Amino acid sequence: MGAARHEWLDFGFWEQLEQLESRHRRVQSEHHSARRRLERLTPREAEELEQAWQRYCEVIAELERTTAAFETLRACSR
């Protein structure tokens, strides 16, 4: 970009923009890699992954409920 950079935007802006672009490219590459690995799963592996994901979601939901209950109990005890 060099000479095309507007003077009213400071160096910090351009540095953050470049870091963000770099991070975006890295994450995009990781996404493509993960997608390719998922596409290579056998039907059985895909089923096991789906079951594991469902169980994970159930556990997270229960964790959120118990955390909310703790917060309610804490708020009521004040």
**Number of helical segments with 4 or more residues:** 2
Largest sheet: none
Shape descriptor reads flat
Quote the average pLDDT.
90
SS-based structural class?
mainly alpha
Count of discrete structural domains: 2
Textual characterization of the structure:
This protein is mainly α and 78 residues long. The chain has 2 domains: 11-40; 43-78. The chain contains 2 helices and no strands. The longest helix has 34 residues, at 43-76. The chain starts with 10 loop residues before the first helix and ends with a helix. The model has no long low-confidence stretch (mean pLDDT 90).
Secondary-structure blueprint:
Blueprint: H1 11-39, H2 43-76
Short description:
The chain is mainly α and 78 residues long. The chain is 81% helix and 0% strand. The longest helix has 34 residues, at 43-76.
Q: What descriptive keywords fit this protein?
A:
78 residues; mainly alpha; 2 domains; 2 helices; 81% helix; 0% strand
